[in-house]
Specification:
The protein is of the alpha/beta class and about 290 residues long. Helix content is about 30%, strand content about 20%. A hairpin with a 6-residue loop joins strand 1 and strand 2. The longest helix is centred in the N-terminal third of the chain and has 16 residues. It is globular.
C-alpha cells in the first residue's frame, strides 16, 4: 500500500501499488475499482499482472461513488492521473505502455479517464460501463436499488430531485472528446448482452458512448449504430447478423469498430471476462 499525493486538494490517496523488478521498462496497468468499491477491493486481475511482473496501481480516487468528491468529480478524475504520475515516478513504467482498465463503476471511471486524462494512454478497456449518470439514476430508481441514492448524494441533489446539470457534468457521454490526444488510443467497450436484465447497467450505455466518441472522431452517420439496432439489441438481446467470432469462450453478439474504437457485445451479463481481460489489452511488446 502506498500514499499518493493529490494535486487538487492535498488529500492523500491510498493505493495498492506493485513495482516491477525487471531491469527493462515495463507496462503499467491502472486497474480501477467498481462503483461501490475502493482501493482495498479484491482485484481479480492482480495475479496475472504480478505473474507478468508488470507495474500496477489500484487507486482509491475518493472511494465508493456516493460522495460529492467521488463519482466523476474533478477530484476523482485528477486522482487517477495522480496515481499514474506516482507510478511513473516510482517504477520503470514505459510511458508508451500505460493501460487503463475497469469493470462496471470501474468501466465508468475508465471512460472518465479516456475523456479527461492528460496522459497519452496506450489503451482503455471498459467492461460493462455506464456513461450517462442521469440515465443511470432513473434506471436505478426503476430497479429500486441503492445506486439511485448514491447518485443523489454524489451530485448534491435535493431530496429525491436529481441535480441534472451536475449529473451531466459527471457523465462521459456529455464530455468533450479530446480528439487530438486520443486519435490513436484504442478504446474497447465490452458489455454482456443480458446486462440490464441480469445486472444493473443496460448495454445502451456502451452503445451510445461508442456512437458519441466515433462521431467526435469524424465518423459519418452511416458508421453509427442506428437507433433501431440499439433497440433490437436492448430488447431482443440478439442480433440477426451473428458470426462465429468469440471472446474467450463466449459468443460475440454484436461488434463494431471505427478507427481505434470498438464496442463488443458478448453472450454474458454484468461481468468482466477475467480469464481473457488481460490478454485483450493491446500491450506494446517492443521492449
Amino acid at each position: 500500500m502506498v500514499d499518493v499525493p493529490t494535486t487538487l486538494d492535498g488529500e492523500i490517496q491510498k493505493a495498492y501499488f506493485y513495482k516491477s523488478t525487471s531491469t527493462s521498462p515495463q507496462p503499467l496497468i491502472v486497474s480501477l475499482h467498481t462503483w461501490s468499491g475502493g482501493y482495498t477491493q479484491e482485484d481479480p486481475l492482480i495475479d496475472e499482472i504480478l505473474a507478468n511482473n508488470w507495474n500496477y496501481i489500484h487507486p482509491d480516487f475518493r472511494g465508493p461513488n456516493k460522495t460529492p468528491k467521488a463519482c466523476g468529480s474533478k477530484y476523482a478524475i485528477q486522482d487517477i492521473d495522480d496515481a499514474i504520475s506516482f507510478s511513473i515516478k516510482n517504477s520503470n513504467t514505459d510511458p508508451r505502455n500505460i493501460h487503463v482498465i475497469g469493470v462496471s463503476g470501474g468501466g465508468y471511471s475508465t471512460l472518465l479517464s479516456y475523456m479527461n486524462s492528460t496522459y497519452d494512454i496506450a489503451s482503455f478497456s471498459a467492461w460493462v460501463p455506464l456513461s450517462d449518470i442521469e440515465n443511470y439514476y432513473y434506471q436505478s430508481v426503476g430497479r429500486k436499488n441503492r445506486y439511485a441514492d448514491h447518485v443523489l448524494a454524489a451530485t448534491s441533489s435535493t431530496g429525491d430531485v436529481l441535480n441534472t446539470e451536475e449529473a451531466h457534468r459527471r457523465s462521459p457521454l456529455f464530455m468533450d472528446t479530446p480528439v487530438n490526444i486520443r486519435k490513436d488510443a484504442p478504446l474497447t467497450l465490452y458489455a454482456g448482452v443480458h446486462d440490464g436484465y441480469s445486472g444493473d447497467v443496460p448495454i445502451s450505455h456502451s452503445l451510445r458512448f461508442y456512437n458519441k466518441v466515433i462521431k467526435d472522431l469524424g465518423a459519418a452517420d452511416a458508421d453509427l449504430i442506428t437507433d433501431q439496432e440499439i433497440l433490437n439489441l436492448v430488447s431482443m438481446r440478439f442480433f440477426p447478423e451473428l458470426t462465429d467470432e468469440k471472446i474467450g469462450e463466449r459468443q460475440i453478439i454484436f461488434k463494431r469498430t471505427y478507427k481505434h474504437v470498438s464496442v463488443v457485445i458478448f453472450e454474458g451479463r454484468h461481468e468482466m471476462l477475467t480469464d481473457v481481460a488481460i490478454d485483450l489489452i493491446p500491450l506494446n511488446h517492443g521492449n
